[in-house]
Write a structure and sequence with these properties.
This protein is of the alpha+beta class and 142 residues long. The chain has three helices and five strands, in the order βββββααα.
């Protein structure tokens, strides 16, 4: 079986990393499914979606000159045309999302002030430590 861009092939998961999964395609060929190509929805932990030894169908996206093969699980599944409709019905969402930034802004402000305070503390500590190694500042010699 030749592996060509656009073809769908069966493969076996041989390894999982934080960024994706390695798929054995047979004939000493291995490809990578990036975590963004595992599912149509957001995947935070790839281990919840795939496991080593699992057989899956993948679509070949790219074959680089150096032999690296880019694969996709989500593009290998045939989706009915009905699924395209929810995207058009999601228009009311912007009005509800107008309320979210206010809450996130407060969270952001508190996070930012916390970060600035922590950063100042670290800089002060670093300056003290550096001055001690150099023998102190000019004002303390005497």
């Amino acid at each position: 079986m030749s592996i060509e861009v656009g073809s769908k092939v069966e493969g076996k998961v041989t390894g999982i990393a934080n960024f994706g999964a390695f798929i054995d395609l047979g004939n000493n060929k291995t490809g990578l499914v990036h975590i963004s190509e595992v599912s149509d929805s957001y995947v935070e932990n790839i281990n919840e979606e795939l496991e080593v030894g699992q057989t899956i169908t993948v679509k070949v996206l790219t074959i680089a000159d150096d032999g690296k093969i880019g694969l996709s699980i989500r593009k290998a599944t045939d989706k009915p045309a009905v699924e395209a409709k929810p995207k058009t019905t999601s228009r009311p969402r912007p009005s509800s999302s107008n309320k979210r930034p206010v809450a996130k802004k407060e969270d952001f402000d508190s996070l930012m002030s916390s970060f600035l305070k922590d950063s100042e503390d670290r800089l002060t500590s670093l300056k003290r430590h550096t001055e001690n190694k150099r023998g102190g500042s000019g004002g303390r010699k005497g």
